[in-house]
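Q: what does this look like with FE2/S2 (inorganic) cluster bound?
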Amino acid sequence: MTTKLMGQRVQRVEDQRFLRGQGRYVDDVAVGPDTLHAAVLRSPHAHARIVDIDVSAVLDVEGVHAVWTYDDLADLSPPMAEPLPLLIPHPALTHGRTQFALAKDEVNYMGEAIAFVVAEDRYVAEDALARIRVDYELLPPVVGIPAARAAAHLVHEDVPGNVGARLEQEVGDARAAIATAPHRLELDLTVERSSCQPMEGRGVVARWDPDVNRLTAWSSTQTSTGVRAAVAVKLGLDLGQVDVITPDVGGGFGVKINHPWPEELLVPLAARALGRTVKFTEDRREHFISTAHERGQEQHIEVGFDDDGRLLGLSVEFWHDHGAYTPYGLIVPIITSTQLLGPYKPQSYRVVFESIYTNTVMVTPYRGAGRPQACFAMERTMDAIAQYLGKDRTEVRAVNFIQPDEFPYDHGLVFQDGRELEYDSGDYPAMLEKIRALVNWDEFPAYQAEMAAQGRRVGIGLACYVEGTGVGPYEGAHVHVETSGKVKVATGLTTQGQGHATVFAQLVADELGVRLEDVEVVTGDTRRMPYAVGTFASRAAVMSGSAIHLAAKRTKEKALRIAAEALEVDEKDLQIVDGVVSVIGLPEAAIDLGTISVLSNPLRYAFDEASKAATQFSVGDPGKPPVAEDDEPGLEGKDFYSPERATFASGMHAVIVETDPETAEISILKYAVVHDCGNLINPMIVEGQIHGGVAQGIGGALYERMAYDESGQLLNASFMDFLIPYVTEIPDRIEIDHLETPSPLNPLGIKGAGEAGVIPSAAVFAAAIEDAERTALPGFGITAMPISPSELFALRHHQEPS
Amino acid sequence: MTEELLDVRLSVNGTPRPLRVPARRLLSDALRHDLGLTGTHVGCEHGVCGACTVLLDGRPVRSCLVLAVSVDGQEVTTVEGLAEPDGSLGPVQQAFAECHGLQCGFCTPGFLTTITAGLRDNPSPTHEEAREMVAGNLCRCTGYQNIVKAVERAAEIGAEGPS
Ligand code: FES
Ligand code: FES
């Protein structure tokens, strides 16, 4: 038997093309002078009425092929004049609003699309934009959660109080439990806006083929099937007339799951109207001001606990800044409200949130999706309880853990997928032991004291989280063995660097018994797999991985059935190794998968060597039709995986920091991660995901924030001003230890890993910096993140007893 | 208002690639859109991310900050030119594959060119020097851990290999 590839550090097969500069990202498609290029005029104001748009000066710019505003859309395709879809409605979202593909009468954030130009190249298209004259009547902008809540001005005239949604969930009577608890605390905790910032922005290319009446679109999206359905509806096409291909994608991190972006509709519309291939490639500034942000939340926590720190009642109220529109519904605040509980089991819990409008870029999930804020709330609360009771922070956490024998554990809440929040498996006490060991928790106080004696401030922080991954509804897979013996695999969700071509090939190689190099995986191409949901919520490995495993299993069953007939043996006596089916213990009685593929298709024409080789075998009952009633031609297998509910991964991070007493510079001395995503398919790739998540988390905790001024101008819309970490900001080593508690919900026992690294960052850094500062300033506390050195400096002076 | 086109005599990866472009054409756009060498990526177009880094007469430059007409007569090396003559991966490319130094691959060409030039100047960097070598390039996926490993591994391969 060949060794199983599941669990091996298999080198990535996709790297070959990336390393040679042969990747095909969306801007690499349709390169050449025949392609037209689009550019978008965007609002310079956060809130304004559009009085008039004058495009007359554009028409004589040489090389301009089209200039459109809202008024042109209805003629091009009537559904285009409707607002963009609200993708995920929810009964609590009583005042959901979405924008138009091009603004109609009003703009609600700086960056909102107003006009669309198509020209010979991007330079000319931008020249044209500069000639469009728009008359605005300025309206008062609503910026920041306090202003939105005060509601002196409204973002949308017909949304009272700027409140889009209010949702409450309660298990037990938390307020009563808090009122009667031996101890009580209240905390107010704020997290600011950041954003995904994949190195590749958004992009879309479309081509209309008049000979076959079909549209092909390439989009840098996290859901090709979603884009396909949206394009079909908005252009008035049958679904069968639209193909969407997701080529290589230069990172997503959540922002590319939202769809359709205005350009994802306007570009196909232009391709059809002009009969030319049209391309739009977002630039970095556009990515800042017209794509989505996340994380802005203000949270109020009340907690009642006993002498051991056991949570008797937990009541959380928070305000979620969802920006100007709500295309992605309430997913982010619902995740905060449910995932806040982490590994703990409070005896009662109440959570209520309001999702509110501001005149800023809209909010859709960013890696972690509401969990970093939730973890910040819960873990700051745990730290506060420990401080209040004078206990070790790990002790207070341990008494609140769900225990290993309590799974499945039902919280009595409804999760983001509309299903019950029921954890499938985990071992939090074991994980706590691992993280304590990894970071040398017990030795730290002595080290801290020693450093303090030298005038140095070092501190340690710990944060725990649980993450619902692999949410439904489903993913599917198709496996096809060609007559050459090569195995072609298709799954519909998309890839943004997670190494799907490798991990999915590992699964097929194991299940089908073929060589890894004979397996080729295609993702995100609606021509190959038209039924799919998308890549988000750390779901790809769980969902498509499981579907691929099942499809490979079906393929194998068929191969064995045909082989048994051809070799005139019992299926039970067969094995498949390196693509050859043989009788166990009788290696000369063998037939390779390519030959079985020929036999599976009773076609009369022989094209290749495999066909000739197949002539020595005979399969099929001459008394029956060549393709039996319950059979299909071809050596293929297709299957779908649809779990009852999400599977819950978990993790704990610890960090040791040093803060400079003079400059307030924050340095990371040690960063440790213990992670449980069930069985690992490829530990190298999982660790890569954790590294990337931790780095993004460091950015979010210490550097990145969207700096809006009171007029709604985003002041730092470039990489010069919005600081994402270079290697110099990331510690030299990230220590990782794995715990593997398999999920009982899927055939592979796996859980998602994509988002985990970023979830505890705000919490763990706040804890560590606070701990370091307290060596000199005993009452020091951090309640808002991110925190830069200058903010830490200011906070010191603010909190210093005068 | 037809734009005036200017002749640029460019050599890319050892092959003459004459161009006729407007004066404002960025080198990054000329490589990608006029010459079809799409391996060079554009992540910011303001000189911060390093994804567009190419070698100009051997020195790393950000091609999004260079006008194509200004490099007349010079030799450009892009990621497409980093493989060995026999088609196998060059040492830096090979090290990235071995160390899992890339995820989405978008930033990768800029790292590969930067490190190629860096190791030419300093073939056996210390750990600190390896970190410094990549300190001007942004990657949003990898957290840099494996990129730094790849620098060190590439130095090793360079030292082993026939030079
Ligand atoms: S694209 Fe040139 S430095 Fe970012
Ligand atoms: S690998 Fe994706 S940005 Fe570096």
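Chain A is about 30% helix and 25% strand. Residues 88 and 329 of chain A are 5 Å apart (CA to CA).
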